[in-house]
Input
Amino acid sequence: MKRSVNDCVILDLPKISDARGNLTFIEGNSHIPFDIKRVYYLYDVPGGAERGEHAHKDLHQLIVAISGSFDVILNDGHEERRFHLNRSYFGLYVCPMMWRGLDNFSSGSVCMVLASDIYDENDYIREREVFFQLAQDEQNDHSIP
Ligand code: TYD
Output
């Protein structure tokens, strides 16, 4: 199935506002369109660092700036969009076959990722040229009448 960067959206997560501190919760297949099988987070990211720079074949993810802020750049092989995440009640849904990079991390930021599957190196596309060739091939397949 051909995926578009426009399938990737910032989801407004439930927020219980309270004078004692706010609370946000995320239930798989309810607030996000997949079951959660894994959680990981990036922290102690040095200024100027870039993370990501790969795509996943089948993995669905939700990226949340639990603390601080950073940017996520998504590219479907044809179109690119930059998302700025800076609230712990916003989550960026990233569908499979999106080239992604993360940069512009603020000091002390924490990037939490909810993933639809356990870690599998075979699900990664780590070479940029390979990803863009696959995206091109997919478009050519879809343009055949
Ligand atoms: P990677 O996904 O390439 O990091 P990023 O996209 O943030 O730059 O992962 C970095 C390393 O960590 C790589 O050697 C794989 C390993 N890793 C795991 O072992 N399990 C995991 O769940 C993740 C996300 C990474």
Remarks:
- The mean pLDDT is 96.
- The chain has one domain: 5-131.
- Residues 128-143 form the longest helix (16 residues).
- The longest strand covers residues 61-67.
